[in-house]
Amino acid sequence: MQNNTVETLIGALVVTVAVAFLFFAYTTTGSGSVGGYDLQARFSSADGIVTGTDVRLHGIKIGTVSTLSLDPKSYAAIVHLNIHNDVPIPDDSSIKITSSGILGNSYLAIQPGGSDAMLKAGGQITNTQGSVDFMSLIARAIYGNSSGSK
């Protein structure tokens, strides 16, 4: 009888610590909703981008990728962004997929335009640049351009 009580108390302690850890991780990593407005952008290639990827403006996180989808007609990748309410984005801004170094994580970098008109919720950033395939660039540098004649 004594062993069952001790085992139950230890089990309850382990569950409490696990719940506390999950709560801490959820609140400190920004996994919750951003509480902003939605924008979208179309890319020819969205390699390296997943739900939760950072959206940055001059290196500062201003939002996250909320969903990814595929346009069945043009086969373009449609990226839905959730941007903080206190960060207005000019309607002539551009966005590109970039990474933190050669082996770093990919993120979306917004370059703000100079327009006085701001994108509204549900708006679209039309000036986009997809991800760069570093492996094919490295292969071209090492092996040369294979499209030339010999």
Order of strands, widest sheet: 7-1-4-3-2-6-5-8
How many individual β-strands? Answer: 8
Please tally the helical runs, counting DSSP H or I stretches of 4 or more residues.
2
Spans of at least 5 consecutive residues whose pLDDT stays below 50 are none
Beginning-to-end CA distance, first to last residue: 85 Å
Residue-averaged pLDDT: 85
Domains counted in the coordinates: how many?
2
> Could you estimate the helical fraction of the residues in percent?
10-25%
Coarse shape: extended
By oligomeric state, this entry counts as: single chain
H/E order of the elements?
A: HEEEEEEEEH
Based on CA atoms alone, the radius of gyration comes out at 22 Å
Largest sheet: 8 strands, mixed
Tell me the structural class.
alpha/beta
- The proportion of strand residues reads 25-35%
Structural summary, described in words:
- With 150 residues, the protein is of the alpha/beta class.
- The chain folds into two domains: 1-32; 36-139, no CATH class.
- The protein has helices spanning 2-28, 134-143; strands spanning 36-43, 54-57, 60-70, 77-84, 94-99, 106-111, 123-125, 127-129.
- It has an eight-stranded mixed beta sheet, with no helix packed on it.
- It starts with a helix and ends in a 7-residue tail after the last helix.
- The mean pLDDT is 85.
